[in-house]
Design a protein that fits this description.
Blueprint (H helix, E strand, L loop, with lengths): L7 H20 L4 H17 L6 H5 L15 E8 L3 E8 L5 E5 L25 H5 L16 H7 L1
Antiparallel strand pairs: 1-2, 2-3
Helix pairs in contact: 1-2
Length: 157
Amino acid sequence: MAAQIKDKEAYQRLNYLYQAAHCVLSQNPENVELARFYCFTQKTIARRLVLRQDPSVKRTLCKKCCSLLIPGVTATTRQRRKNGKTRFTVVRCLSCGQSKSLLNNPDYCLWVDRPEAQLEQQKQPDPDPSLKNQSKGKKPDGSVSSKPTASQNTAST
């Protein structure tokens, strides 16, 4: 059975608001205020219900004015290098001027995308019933320990 997502309706509402903001800007790029209202409402709901948003969603929202950052419409995008090695993507909001630098490393993997971050794939602590049936003087590999147990000490005296 699939794991139940906490606050599934809230995540659906956040997804709807995000898609609505995209649709508003794709139909009329000059209607930035309505898209900003949708994004601000989305951010408010997520904060009020203490929900984590996906990093790909957070990257496309301006932290200062809650505007949706779409390159060429509401934001400018530039590629920069630091120290000749590290590459960054700098996204600048056209509404408020806030800049956001994103690491542009092809080998980098977000923690959310790693297998150990997924709850379904984490191993649950399951006590092995074979360990309970082993005698106290034996090691898990089957060999006998050299240290006598308390029951062996009382039997020999």
